[in-house]
């Protein structure tokens, strides 16, 4: 009987040692040469949405991040990212959201939604799956891959919605997404109407807008970088509008006569 005990002890220790080598020693050796991007380095690229938060919520922003060196404020941004990620972990957002765009057959439709694979669903603007280099930074230590997808993947969240959309959504997800099962996070606000985001609120939005910003931060949605918008000249109105707009002969029959006859 004692011999059996001995065998079990050795087998147990052996399994432990093997697991330790495979899961800890080998990966450490494999990645020991990889340079990890520090918080200081990654916070140099401040996405424009963070500046927008400062512009749109000046009082709240000043209360949350005093003495911000507007508009370039990497230290404040780093602080917001850490606070935002802290909330993401503490509120267990990772229970429902993943942060990994997989390369599964992009054209294979999802059984429920009928949409294609990960790339088509959540990364269509970048058309790329997530790659190891995107995780080699302090913000991903530990990484937040997540395991379940009750909600959408968030690894390319930046720029998908505006700051205001996010705040409204955190206040009450069903205001923006009618059938949402996401809980509301009222403690991200200091009032009872969802108008005064506090430090946690501003930070979680900053974190959402950072995720994937390394791909999209030069998107044309930037306020001061809007593409030239050509407004309709009134003669350019599509014909279908003419009937609706044409209360009387304001524009004369000459210009639109033919179109009117068509209806
Ligand atoms: C119970 C599961 C659940 C939890 C917990 C949860 N969410 Fe969600 N989330 C969802 C669902 C479902 C949706 C899709 C419907 C919607 O837009 O609300 C969603 C949508 C989102 C979206 C919009 C994604 C997009 O691109 O449209 C963001 C951003 C988001 N969640 C962030 C968070 C954050 C941050 C937390 C934690 C503070 C969190 N979620 C916690 C389920 C959850």
3D structure, described in words:
The structure is a single chain. The chain is mainly alpha-helical and 263 residues long. The protein folds into three domains: 1-33; 39-225, Cytochrome c-like domain (Cytochrome Bc1 Complex, Chain D, domain 2, Orthogonal Bundle), CATH 1.10.760.10; 230-263, no CATH class. It is built from twelve helices and no strands. The radius of gyration is 26 Å and the shape is globular. The N and C termini lie far apart (98 Å).
Quick recap:
By secondary structure, this protein is mainly α. It is 45% helix and 0% strand.
Task: Write down how many β-strands occur, each being a DSSP E stretch of 2 or more residues.
Answer: 0
Distance between the termini: 98 Å
Label the CATH architecture of the largest domain: Orthogonal Bundle
Bound small molecules, deduplicated: heme C
Q: Any idea how many domains?
A: 3
